[in-house]
């Protein structure tokens, strides 16, 4: 749990970021490079591609968050009565990434890892990006994330709240 004075909903996200990092290490730390890059079946992504996809996604979101939070702070969008509710797009994204999802969306080419990089490099970057996400979350704890809108890095015509993102 965070030592920062985060609202309960943000503490849950903070905890999830740390738990997913720990879970990733439990899964990949025992893999050799061959298993790391091996696809389970034709058309399915290897562990390497999945983690690199997460890295590509984090690299796309971090500057969006930083810019949106800077602008929100300048506009005074402080969290006096914050909204911690998924908007439509946030709900749809959340449902689409659940394990029990009944539909899949095609990953845009920009977020499909083109190569399989060495495990240590990709996992190290994942760890760094997770720490950056936590730092950005902590820095934005006093903002109303439900009122801050960002454009999806996957499709610029889709806009949703920073909380949903």
Main traits of this protein?
about 160 residues, mainly alpha, two-stranded antiparallel ribbon
Tell the overall outline: globular
Oligomerization state: single chain
Relative helix content: 40-55%
Structural class: mainly alpha
Sketch the major β-sheet: 2 strands, antiparallel
Describe this structure in words.
With 165 residues, the protein is mainly alpha-helical. It contains five helices and two strands. It has helices spanning 8-28, 33-37, 47-75, 88-97, 119-139; strands spanning 149-151, 159-161. Strands 1-2 form a two-stranded antiparallel ribbon. Helix 3 packs parallel to helix 5. It is globular. The protein starts with 7 loop residues before the first helix and ends with a strand. The mean pLDDT is 85.
Q: What's this, in brief?
A:
With 165 residues, the chain is mainly alpha-helical. The protein has helices at residues 8-28, 33-37, 47-75, 88-97, 119-139, and strands at 149-151, 159-161. A hairpin with a 7-residue loop joins strand 1 and strand 2 (159-161).
Record the SSE blueprint.
Elements (H helix, E strand, L loop, with lengths): L7 H21 L4 H5 L9 H29 L12 H10 L21 H21 L9 E3 L7 E3 L4
Helix pairs in contact: 1-5, 3-5
